[in-house]
Amino acid sequence: MQNTNEPPIKQLTHELKYENKWMKVYEDKILRSSGKEGLYGVVEKGEFALIVPFDGKYLYLVEQYRYPLKVKTLEFPQGMLEKSDTGLTEGARRELKEETGLSAGFIQEAGTFFTAVGFSDQTGHVFYATELSQGNQHLDEEEEDLKIKTVTPSDFETLIKANMIKDSGTLSAYAMLKSRGIL
């Protein structure tokens, strides 16, 4: 009888193939429970915060060019947590301020999701932000084309139905908050 606590895939080797400041890519040699060996490509990325800013009437989105897709996307503000962040909430506040210039009087973590379960370990932390006040953006070089867009929740759902919002994190966060009656 097989031990049900044993994972069905055993890692034999874990070889770093590529690395930059945002990610590491590994090639793992694995052994399946059937006894057959195989390969797995794994992208190791840090955790990130995704913030759903809502002022009671409008949701705040960012529009930005996403180089890998060669298109502009509409998404909720989001970004990698940094080592200097003293916690998840501080990282979420920093990202919200950087990308939108918004400060939140109230911010709360709503849950987590995995971005690409078939090849990445990355976890997104969803935050709900209200009591918003506008300040100045502090964009990184990679975000210089970023524009802020506001939409009502009804218009947001129309954009989803029209397939205009395709970012998996944005869709996951909205579903998470909508299912809990927050939006």
From TrEMBL:
It comes from the Bacteria. SUPFAM superfamilies: Nudix. GO terms for biological process: nucleoside phosphate metabolic process; ribose phosphate metabolic process. Coiled coil: none annotated. Its cofactor is Mg(2+). GO terms for molecular function: hydrolase activity. Residues 44-173 form the Nudix hydrolase domain. Pfam families: NUDIX. Keywords: Hydrolase. InterPro entries: NUDIX_hydrolase-like_dom_sf, NUDIX_hydrolase_dom. It catalyses: GDP-alpha-D-mannose + H2O = alpha-D-mannose 1-phosphate + GMP + 2 H(+). Belongs to the Nudix hydrolase family. NudK subfamily. This is GDP-mannose pyrophosphatase. It comes from Treponema rectale.
